[in-house]
Design goal:
By secondary structure, this protein is mainly alpha-helical. The chain has 3 helices and 2 strands. It has one domain. Strands 1-2 form a two-stranded antiparallel ribbon. Helix 1 packs antiparallel against helix 2. It starts with a helix and ends with a helix. Pfam families: LapA_dom. It comes from Halobacillus seohaensis. This is Lipopolysaccharide assembly LapA domain-containing protein.
Length: about 110
């Protein structure tokens, strides 16, 4: 049901943008970084909406794949009982204990 409501809202938004664009058909001056030009307002509106949709979709896709990778790692951690990082953390702890042990022995000798 959630997917259907999303599609319905997207279609309503697209219809509103299309009506708004068709109402505004006059030429407008567009200032680019490298110059200016004239274009129909309908094209400016449609291109702006499409660029906004593309940027939003790409940011959403990046976040989706980050969460998917994190989820896969957590499933791997649950299935194996430990994470690959746990072994490295244990080694670091052992090294820290060894190094702190050697420094306390050196201080006792002084």
């Amino acid at each position: 049901m959630k997917g259907q409501s999303y599609i319905i809202l997207a279609l309503i938004f697209a219809l509103l943008v299309a009506v708004f664009a068709v109402i505004n058909v006059g030429d407008v001056q567009v200032n680019y970084l490298f110059g200016t030009g004239e274009a129909p307002l309908i094209l400016v509106i449609i291109v702006s909406v499409l660029m906004g949709g593309l940027i939003t979709a790409s940011v959403g896709a990046v976040r989706y794949y980050q969460l998917k990778r994190e989820n896969r790692g957590l499933h791997h951690k649950i299935n194996n009982g430990s994470s690959p990082n746990k072994q490295t953390e244990e080694k670091k702890n052992e090294e820290a204990i060894k190094s702190s042990g050697s420094t306390s022995e050196d201080e006792e000798e002084k």
